[in-house]
Amino acid sequence: MSQREGIIIQMTGLSGAGKTTLAFGVQEVLARQGHNVYVMDADQYRKTLCKDLGFSRQDRLTNIRRLAARAKELSEVYDAVIIAAINPFEEGRGLLQERYNSPLLYVKCELEQLIERDPKGLYQKALLPEGNPNRMNNFTGISDPFEQPNTSKWTIDTGVHGINEAVEQVTVWFKAFIEQQQADVFFQRFLESLFLSAKNGQKKKNDHYATQEQVFRALFDIPIFDLLFFLHNECKDVADLEQWIRQRDSKIYLDEKVQEFHRLLHDLKPEEGYQNQLLTDEEWQHWQEKGYLQLSGLVPEEDCDCVKQQICEYLEVDLERPESWWPAGSEKIQSIMLPSLTTPGSKKLKGNPKIRRVFEDLYQQKTIVSQTLPLGYNPPETTSNKFRGTDLHWDIDFDRGLRYYIQGLLYLDDVEPEGGAFSLVPGYQNKVEELLKEHGSPEKAMEWIREQGLAIKLHGKKGDLILWLESLPHAATANTASKPRFVQYLAYHKIEM
Fold this sequence. Notes:
The chain is α/β, with parallel strands linked by helices. It has 17 helices and 15 strands. The strands form three sheets. Strands 6, 7, 8, 9, 10, 13 and 15 form a seven-stranded antiparallel sheet that branches. It has a five-stranded parallel sheet with strand order 2-3-1-4-5, sandwiched between helices.
């Protein structure tokens, strides 16, 4: 983990309860799982860092403060540091929790069992009568107090669980905590970048940051319009941004998303030898040559009908009453899109496994995430209401340059050629640089493309999926037919390794 934030975990328990054995056992298992963990055995540090200290209450508290300070230094180079110490006082445990956000594991074992075990004979010496020269004084649990922990995050009873069982259970706890902490730090840094990018008016984004933003919006299901509006109009600071995100989800679900965000962007490895799952050789060749595909039969028609009905309810459109097809002054529609509408039906279509597999085939990798894109509504033109969409265009960020990014839409009803059919210029996905060089600017190049009249309209059936590269000139078209056009926009973003 680069730019580490210290993760310190503390263990407390009576002598002989198994703290050190447990800590080293957990360290070994976590190492096999890819986590670099350091164990601080307090007994060993008594011989070095804390050799000048005795066993008074004040010295014990000083001991734990020194161990914690050293653990903080070590945590800069380890995924986590485990402090295995008796640490008998709540004051000392609380100090680590407050200052270092250090969770506490109570390694519990009944005193009677410890006296019976006593592998080193320490309890036997501690129980000798006063005045006996072999008596061990200031022994926690016998002649010195051990305060029962009231704020432990976890408790393991080694009098009940054998060491192997205890190691297995504690490893699960520690692994989950370490990975959640790492994910939280990674996510916090991303939120800081997102906030600063918006407030500083940063337009040019590197591919790494752009990928993070795409994955973030996909996992947290945040429409781009909602995010941009909040960042530019309402968000005061990073804490405000985090609170806005947390209000959209329960804490458990949010923590799962944060961990998945970290995993997707931090732990993935390149894939090798990808094999197409759904696309035929003919479809793949068409994609390579033309830059688009139109596929049928991937989604049930009833799923399309469901989303279409939800759009009508949202806009208060009655398909039997044409006068309701153009909602007057509605802020729900921007151009021909519904940026704030997400429905259970649209989420189901977005998560359709066949659609995902098509995107995987086109990206030639399985590490992709779905994007949260709007639904589309394009009613027939009237004398007073004209087409609100854009003309033929590219969706290219020319500051960042060309990239292999795939866009898509799903027809939610049959679409005639004149019913607002999607249009594009086949085969022009590889001509962008040539056209820019010839015409001098994206605007002049696109003006020339429009003049050539090369765009074709892709009419289709309910459930047809249309996919195209963002470098392909494309546009929606005016609807001059007899019914509104309903679509769901879809896209997946590949995660760069």
